[in-house]
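Q: What would this complex look like in 3D?
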Amino acid sequence: MGSYGKVPEAVIRRMPKYYRYLSDKLLQGEERISSSRMSEELGMNASQIRRDLNCFGGFGQQGYGYSIGKLRDEIAAILGLDRAYGAVIIGAGNIGQALVHYSGFACEKFRIIGVFDVRPEAIGKTVAGCAIRHVQTLAEFARQNRVDLGIICTPKEAAQETASMLCRLGVRGIWNFAPTDVEVSRGVRLENVHLSDSLYVLLYHMKQQGDLTEGTK
Amino acid sequence: MGSYGKVPEAVIRRMPKYYRYLSDKLLQGEERISSSRMSEELGMNASQIRRDLNCFGGFGQQGYGYSIGKLRDEIAAILGLDRAYGAVIIGAGNIGQALVHYSGFACEKFRIIGVFDVRPEAIGKTVAGCAIRHVQTLAEFARQNRVDLGIICTPKEAAQETASMLCRLGVRGIWNFAPTDVEVSRGVRLENVHLSDSLYVLLYHMKQQGDLTEGTK
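A: Here is my prediction, written as structure tokens for the whole assembly.
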């Protein structure tokens, strides 16, 4: 599978939704699906679904719909889920521990291979079978294990320092849960999960909705 | 503060970033800031920042920059952070517990007032001082307490049922962490946090980056 340099970010962000949807269909024992049924069940425009999939070369055949298993595997390959990844979590607080346990990562090849912290009371404990080590040992760990990805779950004050350290150790991606923005080296990909940002957007819409409702009373 | 019916969603999604940034500046004791310095430190176009803020009526005065405290308070009001919210969490698993503990919600008026689960082994335990109750008692709880918002942290199989129940109980917003899409009643606002989607987007970009790097070797 080659590289798709010009695919719009919005299209890429819809691919996981297709992947989840098709995985569920497979589990339910279904084999083929039309873009019109996908459209109905996903609440999306059928032509948008076709256009999105065409960004990656197109699958399916006019009038025959898609083979669910094949399409799902293709999307898995597009997303890079056909490769193995080793990830480390820095910060074994609540979010860090939740991620170690989290079963929502439907990619068997994505493995959390190390959990690191600086708090003396955390070091040596285990989370889901994974021992919590001191961050000072991370460089040595990264020499002995292939670490593709770092997950930052530290307090925001430590986030940039952690990101810089992970970049120096050669990770290719950083998944940042600290409630702040961090800078990464060229060539390292960054994805932020700012939970409070998502909450604020929800509160904004709730307020707008409330104001509208009150306005019509 | 009125309602801003036509503000593009992309603008709204940038407001929490401004809010976080200005809150940090305030903590550092700063008082005024120019859009050009904001632009530099946020890594965003200065004219975009001005346009974004103008969507809500504009603040600041040409050549004088913004009063950080005033702008932050205005953004807080825009986002609805000047109001009080009571939230319940359904599903006291790892993600649910992490959210109860999570200190990243910089809005003092947002409070988690109840945590609910169905697992016998969870009921009666406490998380951050909050007793875990059986979901069967949620309707009664919602009659006695103002529940503005429901946070779904259940397994995906229970997510839709939970969303429907929360809508019947009159919540105005649902924050969904279950790895599936749910439908809500008209007038109820929904915000999804699909953690694996965010990871997949990161893995996609890492794969593209890797392919590009290998391609130039």
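A: To summarize the key features: Chain B has a mean pLDDT of 88. The beta strands of chain B are 32-33, 66-67, 85-90, 110-117, 126-127, 130-134, 149-152, 173-176, 189-192.
Q: Very helpful, thank you.
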